Request: fold
Amino acid sequence: MKIAIGSDHAGYELKSEIIKYLNTFDGLEIEDHGTYSDQSVDYPDLALKVAEAVARGDAQRGIVICGTGIGICIAANKVPGIRAATCHDKYTAQMSREHNDANILAFGSRVIPAETAKELVKVFVETDFAGDRHARRVNKISDIEKKYNPNKTCCR
Ligand code: RB5
Reply:
C-alpha cells in the first residue's frame, strides 16, 4: 500500500515523526508531498497534492496534518473521490475506515499528542471498510459529489 502524506508548517514536525513511524510497517510505501520545513505555507496547497495523489490512484490512502486537522481536511474533501476525516482518537479513526471508507486521515498537531497520532495512523492503515449498509451510504456521498461535479470523476 502506498501512503501519500502532507502537512503545512504547523504539522511539519509531527509529519516527520509519522513518516519515521510508517517506515516501521512492512509493505508500506510512503510518498512525502511536503511541506519540508517549518516555514509558513498555506494548508490547501498541501491538501491538494495529497488528495490528487489519492484520487488519481497513485496512492491508496493519504494522511494530512495541520494545526487543527480541520482546514486541511476541508480542502482535501474538495477533490472528487476524496473522503477525508479529521480524527482525534482510535475510535474515530476506526469508524472513518469501517463506516465511511475514508481514504484520507487528517489530524491536528496542536490538538493531539504524537503518540495518539501514531495510534490513529496504525488503525487507519490496518482497518478495512465494512461495506454492506455503509456502502449504500458512501455511494450516496458519491451521488452528491456527482450532482455538483457532473463531468468530473477525479482530478485529471
Ligand atoms: C496555521 O496557523 C493553521 O491555521 C493551520 O495549520 C490549520 O490549523 C488550519 O485549519
